[in-house]
Amino acid sequence: MRRLLVLFLAFVALMTGFGLWLTKPKITDPVVFQDLTPDIANGALIFAAAGCASCHSNVDTKEGLAGGHAFVSAFGTFYAPNISQDTTYGIGSWSVENLANAMIHGTSPGGTHYYPAFPYTSYANTEPQDILDLFAYLRTTTAEPIPSIPHDVGFPFDQRWTLGGWKLLFVTKIPVLDAGANDQLLRGRYLVETLGHCAECHTPRNALGAVKRSQWLAGAPNPSGSGTIPNIRASDAGIGAWSEDEIVEYFQTGFTPDFDVVGGSMASVQENLAKLPESDLRAIVAYLKSLPAL
Fold first, then answer.
1. Element (H, E) at 73
2. Phi, psi torsion values for 64, nearest 5 degrees
3. Are 230 and 242 in contact (CB under 8 A)?
4. Element (H, E) at 125
5. Could you tell me the CA-to-CA distances from 44 to 29, 89, 141, 197, 260 in Å, in that order?
6. What is the pLDDT confidence band of residue 63, given thresholds at 50, 70 and 90?
7. Are 142 and 85 in contact (CB under 8 A)?
8. How confident is the model at residue 16 (pLDDT cuts 50, 70, 90)?
9. Hey, which residues does 72 pair with through a beta bridge?
10. What are phi and psi of 17, to 5 degrees?
11. Cβ count near 25 (within 10 Å)
12. Residue 5 parent element (H or E)
């Protein structure tokens, strides 16, 4: 009996060790950047397409990148951190590898898991060149010596090590849309599924907080508890009645075909979209219109 107990405990220890190894925070191989040259102008476009300022602008002044915006969820309230160039409170001391680890793997410079309130589940397919360009652009922004607000998350969700298992279950690099060899759809997919992380708001989530890929962009309850976030599959009701030109006009100006004005959190998204070239906006529209109705 004692021998069986010892064997059982050894098996448990072995499986625990294997599980911790399997779910440990992952990092990016620095070699992916060694032959790349940063392009700050493209970095500014990536900054806009990824909506960095929408979450990380100073919650009080709406300028800079000191963060502080609150994101309410069923698991607690998360606060966007300071990503300014301050070396103490921001990311001024980060390397490009640190930025890649955060965006692609949800791994902090200290080797811990980030909460998926930061949309690394979407950013996972960001191209190394775009990460390098974004890093170069961020270097041109200001430093703001403002501490980040700690997340308000209770037990057991405050146990970050458990996020390794969550990532194993729900983080994937497999695209939702099979764009084939269509260059416009491929670009639209990259902008919608990856950089724009549109699904983070417009797709409902399961009990563990992961987006339901089977209901991609089909609308979702507002986490704040007030109203819903709309379905943006352009084949469905709502923007499905809008023409390609009308959707592009909405992205550029914030005006709907009925002369209503963009509001709520979408206002900052539209402001970012307006900075992209029209070819990118049309690629986004092509992607949305390619999705079958749900």
1. strand 70-73
2. 65, -170
3. no
4. none
5. 24, 22, 10, 17, 29
6. confident
7. yes
8. very low
9. 77
10. -60, -40
11. 19
12. helix 2-22
